[in-house]
Amino acid sequence: MYDLKAIIIGAGIGGLTAGIALKQAGYEVSIYERVTELRPAGAGISLWSNGIKVLNQLGLGREMAAIGGEMNRMEYRSHRDEALSNIDLQPLFARVGQRPYPVARTDLQQMLLTAFGEDDVHMGMKCTAVEQTDQKTTATFEDGTQVTGDLIVGADGIRSIIREYVLDEVLSLRYAGYVNWNGLVPADPSLCEADNWVLYVGEGKRASMMPVGGDRFYYFFGVPIPIGSETAPADRQKELAQHFSGWPAPVQTLIQTLDPLASNRLEISDIDPPQHFVKGRIALLGDSAHASTPTLGQGGCQAMEDALVLARFLVTTNISVADALSRYEQVRKERTAQLVLKARDRTDTIYAKDEDNTQDWYEQLKEEPPEAVRHALEKIILGGPLG
Ligand SMILES: Cc1cc2nc3c(=O)[nH]c(=O)nc-3n(C[C@H](O)[C@H](O)[C@H](O)COP(=O)(O)OP(=O)(O)OC[C@H]3O[C@@H](n4cnc5c(N)ncnc54)[C@H](O)[C@@H]3O)c2cc1C
């Protein structure tokens, strides 16, 4: 289809990637973002090869490689510092044709923003309603502004308001049962080797570090805690020291090293896979359609895949915008639903929803051949639109 005007709500990973893909397809694109300054939730993100392939396709491979960390291995250790598994990831990269890149979120967001064009992102614009006729779509903002276009992409995250319009119902967030702390620290060999992703697991908790670009490690901790807990930023080191008391030296060093005021503390939720991603000329994309727990590291990658597939159907078919969007829904619904449910299952195992199950998993980590882990990752990666 030619000469379309697309309105994107939300300038996160999904909205910006969709914006780049739609602009490259020759469409007029504007992004409207609620906040006045972009501050991504979370300090780092691991973009697996399927997400990077989308960026390559959009001509951003070089930029991505410049900001990404080099992660060649993945190592599981127990909370008593016992080696559980050590997986060389390089055979996986050779098989799928692209390495993954862990990256600081602000670097990723800035790279995407520059590639899209900052002038076409309208900040401080909170969308309050969307509507459509057979011919056009309209988004209304809190300040009363209305904009019209040929389609609207609701890339407005896990608490999407556009999802309510598309589904005609409110989908509740489902608390995953654990709290995540994350941030960045300077790279240091006493914490973790520079090309290694290390995960300490035990007592239904985990602590992890991985290299992102700029000589930094992205760290995260996860602990099962009932919903509704809060801790002042200044108390976060104390809180982590209690949860991870007796854990190995690198975990203790990490807790002492991290800047509590720059750390994030999040209660993790997902949503049930919805029945639809699309209503007429209005489509959901990214977390608004399929917010997932982060245990597979696929949420952002799936938002990127969505962006590519959406643009591809708009470019390669010419029946109607609604028809192209429904083709997008058909392709994306099943893949993302499977990953949301797989991540949910993995989350329950990691965070001891059933303690016996979690103990079995710790045993399994010791016995599982590295090839099985590589194969599981390969299957997820190659299931993407670019193979
Ligand atoms: C702790 C954690 C770790 C993760 N790790 C990984 C990982 O390693 N790998 C991976 O691939 N994924 C990971 N994810 C998932 C990933 O962060 C998300 O899937 C991804 O950020 C979704 O992008 P999005 O653009 O759909 O939504 P968001 O990033 O949430 O962006 C939505 C944007 O819309 C804006 N917005 C919301 N409402 C409105 C409105 N009404 N009007 C205008 N603008 C609005 C918001 O301000 C925001 O900027 C992780 C998630 C978490 C929480």
From TrEMBL:
It is an enzyme of class 1 (oxidoreductase). Its EC number is 1.14.13.113. It catalyses: urate + NADH + O2 + H(+) = 5-hydroxyisourate + NAD(+) + H2O. Its cofactor is FAD. Keywords: FAD, Flavoprotein, Monooxygenase, Oxidoreductase, Purine metabolism. GO terms for molecular function: FAD binding; FAD-dependent urate hydroxylase activity; urate oxidase activity. PANTHER family: GERANYLGERANYL DIPHOSPHATE REDUCTASE, MONOOXYGENASE. It comes from Leptolyngbya foveolarum. GO terms for biological process: purine nucleobase metabolic process; urate catabolic process. The keyword Flavoprotein applies. InterPro entries: FAD-bd, FAD-dep_Monooxygenase_BioMet, FAD/NAD-bd_sf, HpxO. The lineage of its organism: Bacteria, Bacillati, Cyanobacteriota, Cyanophyceae, Leptolyngbyales. NCBIfam families: urate_HpxO. The keyword Oxidoreductase applies. Residues 4-340 form the FAD-binding domain. This is FAD-dependent urate hydroxylase. Belongs to the FAD-dependent urate hydroxylase family. Pathway: Purine metabolism; urate degradation.
